[in-house]
Protein backbone atom coordinates (compact mmCIF):
# COMPACT_ATOMS: atom_id res chain seq x y z
CA UNK A 1 0.00 0.00 0.00
CA UNK A 2 1.39 3.42 -0.98
CA UNK A 3 1.17 5.91 1.89
CA UNK A 4 1.16 9.69 1.54
CA UNK A 5 1.45 12.54 4.02
CA UNK A 6 -0.97 15.18 2.81
CA UNK A 7 -3.42 17.88 3.82
CA UNK A 8 -7.03 17.19 4.77
CA UNK A 9 -9.12 20.33 4.32
CA UNK A 10 -11.42 21.49 7.08
CA UNK A 11 -12.93 24.81 8.07
CA UNK A 12 -15.43 27.11 6.43
CA UNK A 13 -15.63 28.72 3.04
CA UNK A 14 -12.78 31.27 2.69
CA UNK A 15 -11.32 30.12 6.02
CA UNK A 16 -9.39 26.94 5.27
CA UNK A 17 -7.86 24.96 8.08
CA UNK A 18 -5.96 21.81 7.34
CA UNK A 19 -4.95 18.68 9.18
CA UNK A 20 -1.70 17.05 8.15
CA UNK A 21 -2.57 13.37 7.84
CA UNK A 22 -1.01 10.08 6.81
CA UNK A 23 -3.37 8.37 4.37
CA UNK A 24 -3.50 5.69 1.70
CA UNK A 25 -2.72 7.34 -1.64
CA UNK A 26 -5.95 5.92 -3.14
CA UNK A 27 -8.33 7.61 -0.67
CA UNK A 28 -10.10 10.88 -1.35
CA UNK A 29 -8.57 14.17 -0.19
CA UNK A 30 -10.95 14.46 2.73
CA UNK A 31 -11.39 10.72 3.14
CA UNK A 32 -10.28 8.31 5.82
CA UNK A 33 -6.81 8.86 7.26
CA UNK A 34 -4.44 6.44 8.94
CA UNK A 35 -3.08 8.98 11.41
CA UNK A 36 -3.38 12.68 12.21
CA UNK A 37 0.11 14.22 12.57
CA UNK A 38 -0.38 17.99 12.62
CA UNK A 39 -2.37 21.12 11.78
CA UNK A 40 -1.91 24.03 9.40
CA UNK A 41 -3.92 27.25 9.56
CA UNK A 42 -2.84 29.58 6.73
CA UNK A 43 -5.22 32.47 7.54
CA UNK A 44 -3.71 33.20 10.96
CA UNK A 45 -0.97 35.83 11.20
CA UNK A 46 1.63 34.30 11.27
CA UNK A 47 0.38 30.96 9.94
CA UNK A 48 -0.06 28.23 12.52
CA UNK A 49 1.96 25.09 11.75
CA UNK A 50 2.04 22.37 14.40
CA UNK A 51 3.58 19.00 13.57
CA UNK A 52 4.13 15.89 15.68
CA UNK A 53 7.77 15.62 14.71
CA UNK A 54 8.41 12.10 16.01
CA UNK A 55 5.43 10.65 14.12
CA UNK A 56 6.36 12.44 10.89
CA UNK A 57 9.92 11.14 11.19
CA UNK A 58 8.58 7.62 11.66
CA UNK A 59 6.31 7.78 8.61
CA UNK A 60 9.05 9.27 6.44
CA UNK A 61 11.42 6.51 7.59
CA UNK A 62 8.99 3.76 6.56
CA UNK A 63 8.53 5.26 3.09
CA UNK A 64 5.56 7.65 3.26
CA UNK A 65 5.77 10.31 0.54
CA UNK A 66 4.78 13.89 1.46
CA UNK A 67 2.74 15.94 -1.00
CA UNK A 68 4.41 19.10 -2.32
CA UNK A 69 2.47 21.34 0.08
CA UNK A 70 3.28 19.16 3.08
CA UNK A 71 6.93 18.98 2.07
CA UNK A 72 7.09 22.81 2.10
CA UNK A 73 5.50 22.85 5.56
CA UNK A 74 7.95 20.23 6.81
CA UNK A 75 10.81 22.35 5.43
CA UNK A 76 9.51 25.34 7.43
CA UNK A 77 9.31 23.33 10.65
CA UNK A 78 12.69 21.66 10.07
CA UNK A 79 11.36 18.09 9.99
CA UNK A 80 12.31 17.58 6.34
CA UNK A 81 15.90 18.73 7.01
CA UNK A 82 16.08 16.41 10.03
CA UNK A 83 14.97 13.50 7.85
CA UNK A 84 17.44 14.36 5.06
CA UNK A 85 20.30 15.22 7.44
CA UNK A 86 20.53 18.86 6.35
CA UNK A 87 21.12 21.93 8.59
CA UNK A 88 18.06 23.25 10.40
CA UNK A 89 16.16 26.29 9.03
CA UNK A 90 15.64 29.53 11.01
CA UNK A 91 12.92 29.28 13.68
CA UNK A 92 9.29 29.93 12.78
CA UNK A 93 7.62 33.21 13.66
CA UNK A 94 5.32 32.80 16.62
CA UNK A 95 2.27 34.91 17.31
CA UNK A 96 2.51 36.95 20.52
CA UNK A 97 0.47 35.62 23.43
CA UNK A 98 -2.98 37.08 23.68
CA UNK A 99 -3.74 39.24 26.68
CA UNK A 100 -5.76 37.50 29.37
CA UNK A 101 -9.35 38.65 28.99
CA UNK A 102 -10.19 38.26 32.65
CA UNK A 103 -7.21 40.36 33.71
CA UNK A 104 -8.15 43.09 31.22
CA UNK A 105 -11.75 43.01 32.44
CA UNK A 106 -10.70 43.28 36.09
CA UNK A 107 -8.41 46.21 35.29
CA UNK A 108 -11.25 48.01 33.49
CA UNK A 109 -13.62 47.26 36.37
CA UNK A 110 -11.17 48.73 38.88
CA UNK A 111 -10.73 51.81 36.72
CA UNK A 112 -14.51 52.22 36.44
CA UNK A 113 -14.97 51.76 40.18
CA UNK A 114 -12.28 54.32 40.83
CA UNK A 115 -14.05 57.05 38.81
CA UNK A 116 -15.43 58.64 42.03
CA UNK A 117 -11.92 58.96 43.45
CA UNK A 118 -10.52 60.29 40.20
CA UNK A 119 -13.28 62.90 39.96
CA UNK A 120 -12.22 64.28 43.35
CA UNK A 121 -8.58 64.18 42.33
CA UNK A 122 -9.13 66.19 39.17
CA UNK A 123 -10.27 69.42 40.90
CA UNK A 124 -7.17 69.23 43.06
CA UNK A 125 -5.09 69.20 39.91
CA UNK A 126 -7.06 72.14 38.60
CA UNK A 127 -6.58 73.95 41.90
CA UNK A 128 -2.85 73.29 41.72
CA UNK A 129 -2.75 74.68 38.20
CA UNK A 130 -4.77 77.69 39.31
CA UNK A 131 -2.29 78.26 42.16
CA UNK A 132 0.61 78.05 39.70
CA UNK A 133 -1.00 80.51 37.30
CA UNK A 134 -1.05 83.52 39.72
CA UNK A 135 2.54 82.80 40.71
CA UNK A 136 3.55 82.88 37.07
CA UNK A 137 1.68 86.12 36.50
CA UNK A 138 3.43 87.70 39.49
CA UNK A 139 6.80 86.63 38.13
CA UNK A 140 5.92 87.95 34.71
CA UNK A 141 4.63 91.19 36.24
CA UNK A 142 7.87 91.59 38.17
CA UNK A 143 9.88 90.97 35.02
CA UNK A 144 7.72 93.38 33.03
CA UNK A 145 8.04 96.10 35.71
CA UNK A 146 11.79 95.58 35.77
CA UNK A 147 11.93 96.21 32.05
CA UNK A 148 9.93 99.42 32.41
CA UNK A 149 12.16 100.83 35.13
From TrEMBL:
Name of the molecule in the record: Small ribosomal subunit protein bS16
Record flagged with keyword Ribonucleoprotein: yes
InterPro entries associated with the record: Ribosomal_bS16 (IPR000307), Ribosomal_bS16_dom_sf (IPR023803)
Ranges annotated as biased composition (Low complexity): 130-143
Gene Ontology cellular component terms for the protein in this record: cytoplasm; small ribosomal subunit
GO biological process terms held by the UniProt record: translation
Renumbered residue ranges of the record's region Disordered: 112-149
A molecular function (GO) term: structural constituent of ribosome
Family in the record: Belongs to the bacterial ribosomal protein bS16 family.
One Pfam family recorded for the sequence: Ribosomal_S16
Statement: the UniProt record of this protein carries the keyword Ribosomal protein: yes
Keywords: Ribonucleoprotein, Ribosomal protein
UniProt gene name: rpsP
PANTHER family named in the record: 30S RIBOSOMAL PROTEIN S16, SMALL RIBOSOMAL SUBUNIT PROTEIN BS16M
UniProt cross-references to NCBIfam families, sorted A to Z: PRK14520.1, S16
Amino acid sequence: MAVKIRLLRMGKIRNPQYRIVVADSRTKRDGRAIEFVGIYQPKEDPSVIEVKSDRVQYWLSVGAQPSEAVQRLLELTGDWQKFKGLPAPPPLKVAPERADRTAAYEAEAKAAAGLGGEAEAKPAKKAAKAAEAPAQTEEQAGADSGEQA
